[in-house]
Design a protein that fits this description.
The protein has helices spanning about 40-65, 85-100, 110-115, 160-170, 175-185, 210-220, 225-230, 230-265, 280-290, 300-305, 310-320, and strands spanning about 1-5, 10-20, 20-30, 75-80, 105-110, 130-135, 140-145, 150-155, 270-275, 295-300. By secondary structure, it is α/β, with parallel strands linked by helices.
Length: about 350
């Protein structure tokens, strides 16, 4: 069973080939056009997908050493995501399936993230607890068996990655902010500034808009040193301390809730997925917190952390081997839920 997966829900144009459950290729083209705006501009994302999609799909087929006619199913992200961006991948995938006379399958982007740890070199089994942390989502999901899962809680406002991106923008650090903050935080003091942790009681819901506002108010009270007047040292130190302190507050909440959920559900395998799962501090703190109870933390290789076609092709493969396919009338579903 050979599945072509296409992912265009946000700002990565990606295509991949999965053959009998194994990733044969995974091509990701990140759109840098958004950098100067400090966030994804939906209209520009759609236009970039349109420009890139054919070459990305061709490259995925070439790297997998297969021709178009060898595709058994075309799997495409149908939601959640940006409507215009989703439409590009969906229209392309449907047209390709139609032209080839092959089945078409719409895939929930969040299911892609949920199972992305099964794509790596050492996949874990079922059941497991999943923390999905990306630019658009923060959620804890208890996964009992394939496609049998319960969403335990999600963010009420900003996603964790969104908070990283917005705080980086406030500090004038560029986009996407997550990797930049992660890098700078290594040189900073995580206890430099005590930012609030929004635990919202003992439940599994998250909120990251408060910490973003706390950073904003802190900057109003304590403006950044002017490198032209005071030299680069104080400016660099202040920025690094703010990055480390902000990151620590976010990581504290993510780790505490994930470990509590794993204990409550009796899960020993914890899978972290989504762009923020690349965060080095989150990985280290999660492993340190999980180890005493004998829990194992799984994080995908970098190309499966970010948005990618391989996770879509993999879910497409899981679903199509179970006999599923979608109607050609399936629309883009920008607000599609995981349930
Ligand atoms: O999963 P993803 O590629 O796209 C979405 O579905 O949103 O996640 C992108 C998000 C961005 O907010 C980016 O800043 C964040 O993941 N990110 C990180 C790191 N690498 C990417 N956040 C914290 N630390 C990182 N190392
Ligand atoms: Zn994503």
């Amino acid at each position: 069973m050979t599945v072509l997966g296409i992912e265009t829900s946000c700002d990565e144009t990606s295509a991949a080939v999965v053959i009998d459950g194994r990733v044969a290729s995974n091509v990701i083209s990140s759109q840098y056009v958004h950098q100067k705006y400090g966030g994804v501009v939906p209209e520009l994302a759609s236009r970039a997908h349109l420009r890139l999609i054919i070459q990305v799909v061709e490259e995925a087929l070439t790297r997998a050493s297969i021709g178009r006619t060898e595709i058994d199913t075309v799997a495409v992200t149908c939601g959640p995501g940006l409507a215009g961006a989703l439409l590009v991948g969906l229209s392309f995938g449907k047209a390709l399936a139609y032209g080839l006379g092959k089945p078409f399958l719409g895939v929930n982007h969040m299911e892609g993230h949920l199972y992305s740890n099964l794509l790596g070199p050492a996949p874990h089994g079922f059941p497991f607890l999943s923390l999905i942390v990306s630019g658009g989502h923060t959620m804890l999901v208890d996964v009992e068996a394939p496609f049998r899962h319960t969403v335990l809680g999600q963010t009420r406002d900003d996603a964790a990655g969104e908070a990283f991106d917005k705080v980086a923008k406030m500090l004038g650090l560029g986009y996407p902010g997550g990797p930049i903050i992660d890098h700078r935080a290594r040189e900073g003091d995580p206890n430099g500034v005590r930012f609030p942790r929004a635990f919202l009681g003992d439940g599994y819901e998250f909120s990251f808009s408060g910490i973003k506002t706390a950073v904003l108010y802190h900057l109003r009270r304590h403006p950044l040193p002017d490198p032209a007047r005071e030299g680069g040292g104080p400016y660099e130190r202040t920025i690094n301390d703010l990055c480390a302190s902000f990151q620590e507050a976010v990581v504290d909440v993510l780790v505490t809730k994930t470990i509590a959920a794993a204990a409550a559900c009796g899960r020993f395998d914890i899978a972290i997925a989504g762009g923020v799962s690349a965060n080095t501090r989150l990985r280290r703190r999660m492993e340190e917190a999980a180890a005493p109870a004998g829990r194992r933390v799984h994080t995908p290789p970098p190309d499966y952390c970010m948005d990618n076609g391989a996770m879509i092709a993999y879910v497409g493969w899981m679903r199509s081997t179970a006999g599923e396919l979608s109607s050609m009338e399936l629309p883009a579903l920008p607000n599609l839920e995981l349930q």
